[in-house]
Structures are given as C-alpha cells and as structure tokens.
C-alpha cells in the first residue's frame, strides 16, 4: 500500500524520518508521497525524496500559508518541479475555515488558479486541499481543469459530488476520518467511489484513525484506514491494497518496481 499524503517534512518526523519510514514499511507501506505546504516544507519534501528511494515529493503552497509567502516562493517551488522524484503539485486549494474575509478568499482563489496553471505547464497532477469551500473549489477546478489529473486529498465532500470530481480526472483519497465512528459521509464515499479512482492516505501527523484518534498520526497507521474501507465495501483488504497501489502508480505515471 502507498501513503498518498503524509508530512514526513513536519517537525513531528523530520528529525528522524527513517524511523517512521521503517515502522510503516514493517506494516506493509511500500511508498510515501510527502506533501509540501509552503516553501520550507516543500524543500524538505524534496530533500526526503532525494534521500529515500521509496519517498516521492509534492511541492506547492497551501491556501492558509499564502499570506506568509515571499515574492520568489513560487519561482523556487517551480524550480523543484523538474526533478523526477517531484511527482505532484500541492497541496493547493481553498480553505475558508481559517480565512473568512472576502479579500482573503479572493486571494486564495487567484493563487489556486495560478498554481493549477504551473502544475499544468510542468505536467504534474495536483493535490487539492479544500475546507468549507466546496462550491468555489469545484467551480475553479471545472474552469481550470488539471490537465494531468490529481487528488482530492482527505476527501470530505458529499458522495453525490464524487462522480463530478472523477469526471474532472481526479482521484478520491480517504484518510483517518473514514474510520471515525460517527463519520457517515466518508463511509458512504468509501462505498461508492469507483475502485479505479480510490487512494488512501494518513495525512500524518494529523487525523489519526480510530482507535488512535487524538494522538499523533504516523504513516504506520495506514492499514487501519485501508482495512476500514475494505470492511465497508465488503471485500478483502488485499483488493483495496492492490487497487489503490495501482491507482497511485497510474496517476503519477510510475513504473512498477
Ligand atoms: Ni496535508
């Protein structure tokens, strides 16, 4: 299985990433996509991808990190995209939970569009973060289609919208919330998402799955998420493991190793 979204670049892990990589590999996690959210974390993702064979990087600026960006940040992000271990662009998107003012939201939208454009120019799939911004996120993605596809990361939208995102070439990635006892919508999404568009992620150190909810998450917890999806769909975990691994490799055009 492959963790399609983790933050080994975060301070929780960065002092000793090897420990967390080995712990996860012992649980069957074969590869990791480390996601940047600002310039520094993107550089760290890049560095980890150079250091570990089964670590890949995505670089980009998260909507809530836009405000602290420097004028040269996007150029420096863009410079990393030519590396073959930098396989995705993100995480980018919209987050209206933290930014409520119209002015901030306008800036987020402009920046989202600009970063989709860069991803398209460099032929990279995008990693989309969206929170309390479902309408605008879908509108921007429809008007500015990601030409190389992408991922709706830790998908928290409705089951009804899954087909619309799939039609835009996006994959649906599920994380810890699908295991939460009171999570109705993610469980429904886990059942109806086409098997060839499903991915799994930990989003560690955030969003620990049940029964570890509230603790620091790590990539070693990926099987808890995968097993819950299998249970909900009434299939063996192996089926979800093989499908999500193949989906990841197809989306990022990686050779089978
Ligand atoms: Ni994330």
Structural account:
With 257 residues, this protein is α/β, with parallel strands linked by helices. The chain has a single domain, classed as TIM Barrel (Alpha-Beta Barrel). Helices cover 42% and strands 16% of the residues. The chain contains 10 helices and 8 strands. It has helices at 11-14, 17-26, 39-51, 73-80, 102-121, 134-143, 162-167, 184-192, 222-233, 237-251, and strands at residues 2-6, 31-35, 55-59, 86-95, 126-131, 150-152, 170-174, 198-200. An 8-stranded parallel beta sheet has the order 1-2-3-4-5-6-7-8. Helix 9 packs across helix 10 (237-251). The chain is globular. The model has no long low-confidence stretch (mean pLDDT 96). It binds nickel (II) ion. Residues 5, 7, 35, 91, 203 line the site of nickel (II) ion (NI).
Offer a few descriptive terms.
single chain, 257 residues, alpha/beta, TIM Barrel, 8-stranded parallel sheet, globular, binds nickel (II) ion
What topology does this entry show?
Blueprint: E1 2-6, H1 11-14, H2 17-26, E2 31-35, H3 39-51, E3 55-59, H4 73-80, E4 86-95, H5 102-121, E5 126-131, H6 134-143, E6 150-152, H7 162-167, E7 170-174, H8 184-192, E8 198-200, H9 222-233, H10 237-251
Helix pairs in contact: 3-4, 9-10
Bound molecules: nickel (II) ion (NI).
Nickel (II) ion binds near residues 5, 7, 35, 91 and 203.
Taking Cα atoms only, what radius of gyration do you get, to the nearest Å? Answer: 17 Å
**Low-pLDDT sequence parts:** none
Question: Considering the protein shown, what is the CATH homologous superfamily?
Answer: Metal-dependent hydrolases
Arithmetic mean pLDDT: 96
Please name the CATH architecture: Alpha-Beta Barrel
Which ions and ligands are bound to the chains?
nickel (II) ion
Task: Quickly count the domains.
Answer: 1
CATH class wording: Alpha Beta
**How far apart are the termini?**
13 Å
**Total DSSP E strands:** 8
